[in-house]
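Structure ticket #2291
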Amino acid sequence: MNPTPSPFLDSRLDIAKHRNHLPHWQQDARLQFVTWHLGDALPADVRRAFAREQNAWLATHPRPWCDSVEEEYHRLFSNRLDDWLDAGTGSAILRDSGLSQLVLDALLYFDGTRYLMDALAVMPTHVHALFLPISGRPLESIVRSWKSYTAQRLNERLGQTGPVWMKDYWDRIIRSPEHCWKVRRYILANPAKARLAEGQSRIWERTTPLLAEFGIS
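Resolution: structure written out below.
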């Protein structure tokens, strides 16, 4: 059974908004696409310049966006960020198959109790997740738990201490079935797009996609 009348963004309803370094939006139990990366995946000067440019653009383009504005945002920011991350700069510790499997397993641990996972990609420098928070579970709480637990375990495996992940994350509420399928395809194709050899990433997909389970084509 579909846990909400619609798993997509509804611009007529209230949207919970908060920000750390980046703005975050949430409506209860709506499909979310989230990306975060290792702390050293982007040089500090690149991160700062990118954040300034992004914040200036966001200040003049309040959400929710129409399709054309959303496309402009992805062209200017999402696509550039993805290309930088796919380049695999920095330590790229998740290129190690054991470490990427650790992260994958952690993100699937509460699948079915705190959220419903649809698709995952653990890349050498970053993670993509498409999932539906279960009603009452704040997005920031879910992502904070993922990052905190995996950072601790990764540090244990590597025999080190200190920050592992970037402080923040990028998120987008899924707007429509078409948007969901597009994001799902992107996540699952990310290793091929980045030309990774076998074993340098981990992908996972729900056997029956969430939209199909909900009877949405």
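Closing remark: Helices lie at 44-59, 67-86, 97-108, 139-158, 177-193, 210-213.
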